Amino acid sequence: MTLVKFNNNNGSRSLLPGFNDVFESIFNDTFFSERVSGSLPAVNTSESADFYHVEMAAPGLKKECFKINVEGQILNISYQDNEEHSSEGKRYTRREYSFTSFVRSFNLPEQADLNMIEACYENGILKLDIGKREEAKSTSRLIELK
Known about the structure:
This protein is mostly beta strands. It folds into 2 domains: 1-30, no CATH class; 38-136, Sandwich (Immunoglobulin-like), CATH 2.60.40.790. The chain contains 1 helix and 10 strands. The protein has one helix at 19-28; strands at residues 6-7, 13-14, 33-35, 43-47, 51-57, 66-71, 74-88, 93-107, 112-122, 125-132. The strands form 3 sheets. The protein has a 4-stranded antiparallel sheet, with no helix packed on it. A hairpin with a 2-residue loop joins β6 and β7. The protein is elongated and about 95 Å long. Mean pLDDT is 76; it is low at 4-8, 25-31 and 33-38.
């Protein structure tokens, strides 16, 4: 049997085109699945007994430019900053525009309590804690053998 290797756009190799995408979608989407496009800040998601946690690396961004909302079971984190600098010269005006924006959307699990979401932005990290419904919180107990 001969294996044929294909080059992906990113230069990595796989046995079949799209083969890695299938496994990434199965194994990497534990409790959050997301829709992404373009160049976006990196996000870490984790889970504890009572909360789901989202941490987004967003250094140098302004806290007041973030917008976080929930529509149905979809968590949207967006950022939009329009910054305009102008300087006047001899007989002309020069304008430089800087426009930064992105949107990241996450499908929240059914166990998420949408009324218990807290967010903070400090040291360049946007942190969200999303509470779990009572029935979803893990309870553990020791079972004795008889």
